[in-house]
């Protein structure tokens, strides 16, 4: 299904956040910024968070073990960069939303230290959630 919110997210993750260390939005490439500023109209936070977790836990579905591992790591990095961009775009909403807080809480069991990503001690993050 082309043009669905899920497909737009997938496109962003695959083309705009291709596991680069730092993604900077330019005037020519504002799709990510536009998506983050307007997603609540067509993709509510709860559904977006579910989709983000789905991409974080996705697998390529085949191929060699090394290729599978590389795909999974690349996918996780893209999701992390998306979440970082979202945090940078709307920090107040990001830390005050219970839905986004749940995303971070669920993700805390994953092998990524979210507290380092958000420059806050884990206890502060839990308090914000």
TrEMBL record:
Pfam families referenced in this protein's UniProt entry, alphabetically: RasGEF_N (PF00618)
InterPro entries according to UniProt: Ras-like_Gua-exchang_fac_N, Ras_GEF_dom_sf
Keywords annotated in UniProt: Guanine-nucleotide releasing factor
Domain N-terminal Ras-GEF: 1-129
Coiled-coil positions: none
UniProt entry tagged with the keyword Lipid metabolism: no
Protein name: Rap guanine nucleotide exchange factor 4
Organism name: Aplysia californica
